[in-house]
Please model this.
Amino acid sequence: MILHADVRTMDAAHPHATAIAISGANITYVGDDASSFIGPHTDVHDLGGRSVTPGLVDAHCHVYGLGVDLESIDLRALATEQAAAAAVIEGAKRIPAGEWVLGRGWDQNRWPGQTFPSHDTIDAIDRPVVLTRIDGHAIWVNTAAMKAAGITSNTPNAEGGKIVRRSNAPTGVFVDLAMALVIRAMPSAPPEVRERRLRNGLSKLAAVGLTGVHEMGLERETIAVLEKLAAAGQLPVHVYAYLLGDPAHPPEDSPKPAVGRFEMRGVKFYADGALGSRGARLYADYDDDPGNRGLWVTEPATLTRGVEAAVAHGWQVATHAIGDAAVGAVLDAYLAAEKSHPGDLRLRVEHNQIIAPQDEPKMVAAHAIASMQPTHATSDMPWAEARVGKVRIQGAYAWRKMLALGVPFAAGSDFPVERISPLLGLYAAVTRQDADGNPPGGWYPDQRMSLDEAIAAFTRGAAYASFAEDHRGMIAVGFEADLTTYDRALSPMNLKDLAVELTIVDGKITYQHAHDAPPHVETAAYGPKMEGGGPAPTPGIDD
Ligand SMILES: [Zn+2]
Model:
């Protein structure tokens, strides 16, 4: 029972209320007089005017990737190669025997001399070590890792990448596509390691108010572990997962029914790369790199065939598309699939970061869902316009354009690329400002969302994107009792320092802020910042 609350129902028929009654896992009353629902054993939460919304859902994130990140050795704060190496040697002691040692966050530009590190300083560890650079675009490895990968002075450079050498011998640093030469030798994680990572990632979600996640691309081995956890009733949130797919080899089976809080009926494809590293595929050259239009992770013809085959087998398709040409190609593929398989397909464009004006009508015609990440805009705003120029930027991170077109909109964070808290997403969506309130008035402020639009994107929109809008995403009678409550009455002006008070999943409290404790502050102590949600080069991430 919740009383004296600012209830934002996201139900257009009854947008506001002050009381909610819950019985078991479901909402039994929404209104202003719940007195007849209060019995001697009713658990009453008086919110004193503070807000409650439907439970927040991250519609694009990587819980498994978060788990990998959380157990990697963090090197970001270290000021020299020697200090980083010492941290790795120390950290390796707590990594179970037989596992590769993973770390992240080094940046030689912050070290004296600004030169790349070398395998020498980490060769004291006799098992493979792989340390990812802060931007995710290079790795620093030891001799054991190179040995495991069969790399010698004779190994040729990979196209699109570089093996850093000293008098021909590899130094242990591998840049861009050369990283795969080492990473592909990494043994596949056994189920118990996958389970440990999933549990670690899942354990972080309740405190930031999440009641559900859309896990965006997992290997089947990880899915099997999630299913097991779900069957045992051990998922603290609803997990709507996507199979990590390859359009050239689309799945030949069909989605299986939900297990407990777990459901997987979608497949994730990639059309292109990311904007920061100029891998996003554009119709015309990058403004700051003439001659370069980015890359296709999947060529349009292959993508069209892959989408068609996946839809034919009953899969919902979600495709990563960041550049305008990639978004256009995905929409063409979706239109073709809709034509041959008319129905309620809910095909999703993940990131949808830059859309060309001529493709906006296709978004509507394909009934596509815009799955976008408000914090990507505020992370990328310092350099995004340099990449695409003054004209194309008008179609970049263009949330309001999507809303105005009536395109279904689901919001997420893409954690661990960005930080976990959906509250940061609400703030970014409403202000288009960074954490310091810059730029004043917001970046391209005409694309800001209203507070209710932002909440809807993290609730009702996410429910729609997972075919769950008839029982999740609104505070309404008969709906699942997934709720998030806050430490204040929400207003567009006070989102910056917002904190969660209660997280409720299926009628059960999964997080409660203790009033004598300081509010939960999410630390940024995980994850290299990798811009734009590109295929994650961090070893072991399923992205
Ligand atoms: Zn992602």
Q: What stands out?
A: Residues 523-543 have pLDDT under 50 and may be disordered. Residues 324-340 form the longest helix (17 residues).
